[in-house]
């Protein structure tokens, strides 16, 4: 019996403790101390200079110094050498092919792949990617080059450097020379942007480019690339359209000139497509079993070059060929400074796209192999991969898959061999073969169209962003597609906070847990108490929607109710003046107490004396959000309805305190009025007890 009595006493004590609301004491922080200490700490960290810090900075800026000493030469060199050799062999035809896309001569594509591979191996933080030519960036560079070359005849032996302003002429600089000058200037400017972004530590911007945005942009650009290569497949010599809606303009021009198709180029294109598509599919299917992909592209290039050379396709059939590809390197050349204002905007979009692609691939490989990449260091690496090669007549680069950075160096050696010895042998290579290589490599991006139904089922918002970005990039303008995609993503995030509605919560039968009444069965409500949740931050853009949604769920708009009562009071006064002999009974309670029982909607038919707002899903409040909560509380209290908050985050509590929502919260422990609670159960018990203390006996705890 003693044990039983002790057990009963413990149970009573436990019940009594459970009835008491949870009270936690906040840690007092000295005002301004954290800000000052943080500022001083950052100043000491960035302004002090020690030998260890200088060494760390050098090692961080040149990551090769960190990973090269730990490179396992015996275990990795054979695989890296084979992988680098295969990648280098594959880069040869791809570099020559993508030069067409960038409106450059083939030799400049080889230069670009060579220099970028070496520089990224020294400065890059990812151990599993190598930097090289990327189709989307080549397209963007080619559009700028064609725009600047518009109006310049291909027979001009001297080109007036546009934008220089003094009318000077550089003798001996023909159309091809000016094209690479424009491309190198765009590349230099994009690299400067990327280095500046790394200097100012803005590598975080990559998080705002979602996977659906980048995928839609790449797919839209791939459609534009595919369209731009059709003229080479058909052997048509057509200028690249400028401005917006280039896709439609190109297809219109192709259809108009379809009768001028070069049969030799068309047959060659069809044969190469029939060979490369199945073989590339075989490579993809057995890539897990193959140590390196089989270079079918190189085989096709060699066979096509031999056939064109011995068949005299250029002279006998008028087929367009690669032409003279010189050996060796050209002397370094500065960018055309006067051209930078013309290409500054284009270079910025190129810089953002190149960085986003590199960081996304770097993080993917890093996560797969268990290490981290520095986004800001990647900015430096990609920036210098554009700045330094631009002096050697290269154009913009981005990342490509690779085994390790050592294999990137091996690939650079293969490209060096081609540049010094083998390049002239590709003189007779048809441009239609290069176009086929580009088109076949677009398969991955074009396959995304088959994933649209799945994306729509998984997440309609992401699918909508993909569709909008893809359509704008392909049908309107490539650079505009990136901007529209970013804006669409931002508006979707904002739109999600606009579409949120207040939901009413019910209590589970077995424990004090509250969930949406419309989502789960068996939930119970409290007589006279309504519990609501708003699953979004409350800020200036949605605070009016929050109030409207809450009023709709409660079933009473306090503003409209006040207006109705004022009209009723005014009408009553007028009737009293007109009918003097009629005596009206004076109300026993004041107007607020008389209205203490508020009917919800017609479906529930229950009275509400108190409203509890669950703030667990409210991530932050701005000034407008705090004012909205204050207005809700005041308007309902004028009608006799108590409003309290529950489960507020610390940041939300701080915002409420700064905004003057609960000035008496610190004096609340002695039984005075409370407005904010740590749990919904505490809030419900408080308003129930408050109603009971006011004489509302219909509500039972």
Explain the overall architecture.
The chain has 27 helices and eleven strands. The chain is of the alpha/beta class. The strands form three sheets. Strands 5, 6, 7, 8, 9, 10 and 11 form a seven-stranded mixed sheet that branches. A two-stranded antiparallel ribbon has the order 1-4. Strands 2-3 form a two-stranded antiparallel ribbon. Residues 1-14, 155-171, 581-606, 665-672 and 696-701 have low confidence and may be disordered. InterPro entries: S04_transporter_CS, SLC26A/SulP_dom, SLC26A/SulP_fam, STAS_dom, STAS_dom_sf. Residues 1-20 are annotated as: Disordered. It is a multi-pass membrane protein. The chain crosses the membrane at residues 76-101, 128-145, 178-200, 212-234, 254-277, 298-319, 339-361, 406-427.
Which word captures the global form? elongated
Rg is 36 Å
Q: What are the segments in which pLDDT stays under 50 over at least 5 consecutive residues?
A: 1-14, 155-171, 581-606, 665-672, 696-701
Biggest pleated-sheet summary? 7 strands, mixed
Number of helices: 27
What are the SSEs and their pairings?
Elements: H1 2-19, H2 33-47, H3 51-61, H4 64-67, H5 73-101, H6 106-123, E1 129-132, H7 135-149, E2 158-160, E3 169-171, H8 175-199, H9 211-234, H10 246-256, H11 263-285, H12 296-311, H13 313-316, H14 340-369, H15 375-390, E4 398-401, H16 405-422, H17 431-440, H18 443-446, H19 452-458, H20 460-476, H21 478-499, E5 503-507, E6 514-516, E7 528-533, H22 543-554, H23 558-578, H24 591-594, E8 598-599, E9 607-614, H25 623-637, E10 642-646, H26 650-658, E11 676-677, H27 680-693
Parallel strand pairs: 7-9, 9-10, 10-11
Antiparallel strand pairs: 1-4, 2-3, 5-6, 5-7, 8-9
């Amino acid at each position: 019996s003693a044990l039983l009595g002790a057990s009963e006493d413990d149970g009573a004590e436990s019940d009594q403790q459970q009835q008491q609301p949870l009270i936690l004491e906040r840690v007092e922080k000295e005002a301004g101390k954290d800000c000052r200490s943080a500022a001083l700490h950052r100043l000491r960290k960035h302004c002090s200079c020690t030998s260890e810090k200088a060494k760390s900075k050098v090692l961080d800026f040149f990551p090769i110094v960190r990973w090269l000493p730990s490179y396992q030469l015996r275990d990795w060199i054979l695989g890296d050498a084979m992988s680098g050799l295969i990648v280098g062999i594959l880069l040869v035809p791809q570099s020559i092919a993508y030069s067409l896309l960038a409106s450059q001569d083939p030799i400049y594509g080889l230069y670009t792949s060579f220099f970028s591979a070496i520089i990224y191996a020294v400065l890059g933080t990812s151990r599993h990617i190598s930097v090289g030519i990327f189709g989307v960036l080549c397209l963007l560079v080619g559009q700028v080059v064609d725009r600047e070359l518009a109006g310049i005849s291909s027979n001009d032996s001297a080109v007036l450097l546009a934008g220089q302003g003094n009318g000077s002429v550089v003798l001996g600089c023909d159309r091809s020379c000016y094209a690479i000058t424009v491309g190198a200037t765009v590349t230099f400017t994009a690299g400067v942007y990327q280095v500046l972004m790394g200097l100012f530590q803005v590598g975080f911007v990559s998080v705002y480019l979602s996977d659906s945005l980048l995928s839609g942009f790449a797919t839209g650009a791939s459609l534009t690339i595919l369209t731009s290569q059709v003229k080479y497949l058909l052997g048509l010599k057509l200028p690249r359209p400028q401005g917006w809606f280039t896709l439609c303009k190109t297809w219109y021009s192709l259809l108009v000139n379809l009768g001028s198709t070069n049969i030799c180029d068309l047959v060659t294109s069809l044969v190469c497509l029939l060979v490369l598509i199945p073989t590339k599919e075989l490579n993809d299917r057995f890539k897990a079993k193959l140590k390196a992909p089989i270079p079918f592209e190189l085989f096709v290039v060699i066979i096509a070059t031999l056939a064109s050379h011995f068949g005299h396709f250029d002279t006998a059939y008028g087929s367009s060929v690669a032409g003279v590809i010189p050996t060796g390197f050209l002397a370094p050349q500065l960018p055309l400074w006067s051209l930078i204002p013309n290409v500054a905007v284009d270079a910025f979009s190129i810089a953002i796209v190149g960085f986003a692609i590199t960081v996304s691939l770097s993080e993917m490989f890093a996560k797969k192999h268990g290490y981290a990449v520095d986004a800001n260091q990647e900015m430096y690496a990609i920036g210098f991969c554009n700045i330094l090669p631009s002096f050697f007549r290269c154009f913009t680069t981005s990342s490509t898959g690779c085994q390790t950075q050592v294999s990137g160096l091996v690939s650079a050696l293969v490209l060096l061999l081609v540049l010094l010895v083998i390049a002239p042998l590709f003189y007779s290579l048809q441009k239609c073969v290069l176009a086929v290589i580009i088109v076949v490599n677009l398969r991955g991006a074009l396959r995304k169209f088959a994933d649209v139904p799945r994306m729509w089922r998984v997440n309609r918002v992401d699918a909508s962003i993909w569709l909008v970005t893809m359509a704008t990039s392909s049908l309107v303008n490539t650079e505009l597609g990136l901007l529209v995609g970013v804006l669409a993503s931002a508006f979707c995030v904002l739109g999600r906070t606009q579409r949120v509605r207040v939901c009413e919560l019910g209590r589970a039968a077995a424990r004090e847990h509250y969930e949406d009444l419309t989502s789960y069965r068996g939930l119970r409500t409290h007589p006279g108490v309504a519990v609501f949740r708003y699953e979004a931050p409350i800020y200036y853009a949605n605070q009016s929607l929050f109030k409207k949604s809450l009023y709709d769920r409660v079933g009473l708009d306090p503003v409209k109710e006040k207006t109705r009562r004022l009209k009723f009071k005014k009408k009553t006064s007028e009737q009293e003046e007109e009918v003097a002999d009629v005596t009206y009974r004076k109300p026993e309670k004041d107007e607020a107490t008389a209205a203490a029982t508020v009917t919800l909607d017609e479906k529930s038919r229950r009275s509400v004396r108190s409203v509890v707002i669950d703030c667990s899903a409210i991530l932050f409040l701005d000034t407008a959000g705090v004012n909205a909560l204050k207005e809700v509380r005041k308007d309902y209290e004028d009608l006799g309805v108590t409003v309290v908050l529950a489960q507020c985050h610390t940041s939300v509590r701080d915002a409420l305190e700064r905004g003057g929502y609960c000035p008496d919260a610190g004096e609340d422990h002695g039984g005075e009025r409370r407005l904010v609670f740590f749990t919904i159960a505490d809030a419900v018990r408080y308003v129930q007890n408050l109603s009971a203390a006011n004489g509302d006996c219909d509500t039972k705890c």
